[in-house]
Amino acid sequence: MSRIVVQSVSSNTNLSKEITWERIRIRKTLDELCHYLEMYIPVSERDKIHKHDRLTVHYFNGAVSATASRNLVTTICVDEVCEKSEANHRSLTVIGRSPARDLVDSTWSDTVQGKADLLTIVKTIGSKFGITVEHIPAGGNTSQPVPSFSWENESPWTRLLTEADNQGFIITSNEQGNIQLINPVGWKVNNKFLLAEGKSLKHIQTIESGFEQFHEYIIKGADYETIAVDEQCPAGRVMTINLTDRSIDEAKLRRRAKTEMQRRRQNKVQVMVTGWGPNNDHTLPYGNTHMEEVLWNPCSIVPLDIPNAGLSGNFLISQVDYYAETALVESTITLLKPEVYT
Length: 342
What we know:
The chain has helices at 101-105, 118-127, 157-167, 250-265; strands at 2-9, 16-19, 23-29, 36-41, 54-61, 72-86, 89-97, 108-112, 133-136, 149-154, 170-173, 179-182, 195-196, 201-207, 216-220, 225-229, 238-242, 268-274, 301-306, 311-325, 328-336.
């Protein structure tokens, strides 16, 4: 049996209140820095929540043991509270994003002095908004120096994303609202959980999309240019990316071209499962699940076994869409081959 608890912390008083909810949608994806939440609540809860308040969502799942702090799904800053009145009905909709929204939305001018590495740069910018930045795997720093990092009357987010792509990192938010700089090299498969046909999978779909795919990927640097060719896409479709930073050498340009091609041509698999985390159907009968994943989360690599769809092997969770209402709790999990990011 699972349970979802939502709490609101006032931006003015710092007091915490539990929120009664009717429907919740949460999206986490490796393609966005912020988690996204949309929640419908009774009008009677109106005084408990306001713009800029902080929301926490916890998911309690009896199938996998964990401490209370690890049951946290997301931490959200409220962007909007919308009260809607219709004939014989009033409703409240709450929309919010991770605290890193402030970094994405803000525009100013600044320079990070010295030849700082990427992790130091992200930490320096995050500190302006009181956001903690973590390196994954923890306990080290594999990011590389950046000769210069400045921006003028804009958000530094686009520049950070470009530099992360060049160095092979992913930048995203975690459940506590911190920013994570993730090095995907060496990701390990979680062999204690399995997504398998006949095991609580509500539906399965494969998505073969070509609208973001190109035949040639031309990456231009200040001193070099490289091209990656995708023979799976018809000739004529060309994508060009200009990177003017002189610190980007030819090897980084080749890697950027390769990763752009891999991500854009990769077919997706989506499975819908009951619950927001692994249940007894997904837990393999060996090993202790204490301190294992409580949630289906991006960045996890899990075994997939769906013979009728011709799917088998280890897949990376790139996106999770959580949904809940009074009598329904489910997740839609988007999976890709791990080499898309590694």
